[in-house]
Amino acid sequence: MPTLLVLAAFALLIAMVWLVPRVGARIARRRLPAHPSTPPAGFVDDDAPAEIALDEAPAFPLRPNLDVSNGLPLLDWQALGEWASSLNDPGLQRQAMALGKRAWLLHLRDALGPHFHLYESERAWVLSSLEHVVAAATAAYVETARKRIQRVLAGIASFEADDRSILLVVDDEDTYYGYVSGYYPEQGEFALSGGMFIDAGCPHFLAKRADLAAIEPVIAHEMTHSALSHLDLPRWLDEGLAVNTERRLTGPGAAQHTPQELRRKHLAFWDEATIQAFWSGESFFRTDDGNLLSYELARIMVEQLAKDWGLFARFATDARHEDGGADAANEVFGADLGVLACALLEREPDPRWSPAPDRWFDAGAATA
User: Fold this and answer.
1) Percentage helix, strand, coil, to 5, in the chain?
2) Which of 240, 259, 274, 275 suits a disulfide with 298, CB 3.0-4.6 Å?
3) How many angstroms separate the most distant Cα atoms in the chain?
4) What are the sequence ranges of the domains in the chain?
5) Residue 14 has what pLDDT?
6) What's the rounded Cα separation, in Å, for the pair 169 and 161?
C-alpha cells in the first residue's frame, strides 16, 4: 500500500507540472529529493559502452565510429545501419539500431556534463539536465503528443510503433547552435529558433532548456516534423503543417505583430523572386523578417488548403519537394499554387509566382 501511495503522489506531481507548470515544478522540488543517491526508475545509470553486441554477430565498436563536433559525439549512422543489416532477423535489426541509439545518447550525456541524465520510457528518450520529475513529465508529454499528432494529422502522420522518440534539451544557445552545426556545417548562420527536428542519420529533435510552457510547443512542432519525415514534403508544406499542429495542440502563443502589421510586412516582402525562395524552402533559413513571413505564409496556405481534409491528405501524400508541390496541387485541387499565393497576398494572378524549380538557384541568392 505505501508503494501505491508513492506512485499515486508521483503521478499527481507529473500532472501538476503540466497543468500548472511553474506551480507544479515548485511543488515537485519541495516534495522530491533534488539529487537522490539512486536515480528514480526510468533514469539510465549505465556507463557509456565501448561496444554493443547482439546475437552471434561481431560486436559494433562505438569509439571508432564516433566523430566529435564542437566537443559532442556524432555517431556514424551508416556504419551502425550496415552492422544492424548483417543480422538476419528483422526484429534483431531493429533491436540493434535501438541499442546503437541508446549507446550514442549515453556518450552524448557524458560529453554534455555530469548534470545531464538520460530518461527512458516506453516511447521516448529524454536527454537533459532537467530535474528528475520534470524530465519524467517531459517524456510523458512526448508520448501523449505522439498520439495527438496522429489523430490531428490522420492519414499522413506516422511514428514507428516500436521506436522511441528522442528529445535532447540543451542548456544554452551556444550548445544548441554548436550541436546543430555538426549536422549542417554548410548552413553557416542560422535563424533564431527554440527547437529543431534533425533528420540526419538518426531522427531526433532538439530544444533549448526553458520552463515547461515554453518547451511544450517546441515538442509539438518538432514531433510533427518527425511524424511527417516519411513523406517527401516541400519545406513550406512541412512547416505549415508543423505550425498549425503546434497551434492545435498548444494554442497560438503570444503574437509578435498585430494582423495589420503582418499584412503590411507580407505585402511589402513577397514578389516573384522571394516567392520562388519560399517554394524552394530557402526563405525559411533567412535571418531577417523573411523567416517569420515564410512560416506565416506556410501556416496560412496549409490552413486554406486543409479545409477539405480528405483532399488535403491526398495532396500531402503526393506532394514532392522537387517541384514545391506544384504537380500534386494541380492533380488533387486542380489549382496552381502561384495563383493561390497571389490571392492570399492580394495580387492579380502572375505566372512568375508559380513554383519554377529551374529558377530556384537564383532564388536562393535573394535570401542572403
Assistant:
1) 55, 10, 35
2) 240
3) 72
4) 2-31, 51-230, 248-365
5) 43
6) 23
Gap between the Cα atoms of 234 and 80, Å rounded: 29
CA dist 248 and 361 (Å) reads: 35
Which positions of the chain have pLDDT values less than 50? 1-36, 362-368
CA gyration radius, the chain: 22
What pLDDT shows up at residue 29? 39
Q: Tell which residue, 219, 245, 322, has the closest CA to residue 280.
A: 322
What phi, psi does 69 have (nearest 5°)?
-125, 120
pLDDT for position 186: 61
The continuous run of DSSP H or E covering 196 comes out as strand 195-198
Residue 138's nearest CA partner among 67, 84, 195, 211 is 211
SS3 79: helix
Grid coordinates of 269: 516582402
Q: What is the pLDDT of residues 177-219, one digit of tens each?
A: 889 888 876 655 555 567 787 878 898 888 888 766 778 888 8
- CB-based contact 169:126 (threshold 8 Å): yes
Extract the C-alpha cell encoding 214.
515554453
Output the pLDDT for position 93.
93
| Distant-in-sequence, close-in-space partners of 343: CB < 8 Å, separation ≥ 6 | 349
Query: For residues 245 and 149, what is the distance between their CA atoms, to the nearest angstrom?
Result: 7
Q: Which CATH class is domain 51-230?
A: alpha beta
Could you tell me if 138 and 215 are in contact, meaning their C-beta atoms sit under 8 angstroms apart? yes
Strand pairing of 165-170 and 204-208? Answer: parallel
One-letter-per-residue 3-state SS of 284-331: HHCCCHHHHHHHHHHHHHHHHHCCCHHHHHHHHHHCCHHHCCHHHHHH
CB–CB of 311/333 below 8 Å? yes
Contact 282, 257 (CB under 8 A): no
Give the predicted TM-score (pTM) of the model. Answer: 0.75
Q: State the DSSP string of 131-146.
A: -HHHHHHHHHHHHHHH
337 close to 354: Cβ distance less than 8 angstroms: yes
